[in-house]
Amino acid sequence: MKCGGSTLAALPTSFFEDMRQLQVEGIVTVIVHGGGPAISETLGKLGIESGFVNGLRVTSEAVLDVVEMVLSGQINKEIVRRIQLTGAAALGLSGVDGHLIEAKPVANSHEVGLVGDVTKVNAELIQGIVNMGYIPVIAPVGLGADGGQRYNINADTAAGAVASHLGVEQMVVVTDVPGIMKTVDGEKQVLPVVSVAEIEEMIVSGDIYGGMIPKVRAAIACIQGKVQEVVIVNGSEPNVLSKVLKGTGIGTRIVR
């Protein structure tokens, strides 16, 4: 499951209770989270400048210190705390811990600095945490192959890589929208299923616009390796995770 940092703050307690119920039933969620707005807020308070290039945060060592502090510290522990309040067990870690996520510089690193593309995920470590009865909560900070350099990794990129290396077929992207909408006969409706090709057509036609474009592009990026489909859902919908797993037609399924 990929969860945006801004979405997490708004999620109701029932979302985490649903996660606990799934764990009781033997279905464990692996969470990869973001935290863009909180990072921007902290950078602002500290007077550190940082822009964006094509949706990626320009990351210097000073920015990276803040990214790691906010993601691996503040947000990661807030999610762990909220899960544990339901009685479930959670364990928070970042891509640095146990060489969980290895990364290399992105192709345009000359523009964005210390931003990484995932090269390897220690799936055995995640599986071990799950086998011990914990829900893994992962912050997307990675390490270079030498273990010395840290990298800021886009949360969607990290989530797609983790899902693919774990060998899961379905990934859930939790947002603040009910799915991909299309106007049919003057009414906005959630599309139950769309293909990657159809999404590209909808962006060109203007059916998908504004802030939804980066969301769907990020979801498409998650379809890699063994991941066959990504489901976009609204996290505030009651029992949303259970509904997705039971195939009740909630949200939008993006398929290859």
UniProtKB/TrEMBL annotation:
Residues annotated as domain Aspartate/glutamate/uridylate kinase: 1-234
| Gene Ontology molecular function terms on file | acetylglutamate kinase activity
Keywords, A to Z, come to: Amino-acid biosynthesis, Arginine biosynthesis, ATP-binding, Cytoplasm, Kinase, Nucleotide-binding, Transferase
Marked site (Transition state stabilizer) residue numbers: 2, 215
Give the highest taxon in the source lineage. Answer: Bacteria
Q: Which reaction is catalysed here? A: N-acetyl-L-glutamate + ATP = N-acetyl-L-glutamyl 5-phosphate + ADP
Q: Mind telling me which NCBIfam families this protein's record contains? A: argB
Its protein name is Acetylglutamate kinase
Print the organism lineage. Bacteria, Bacillati, Bacillota, Bacilli, Bacillales
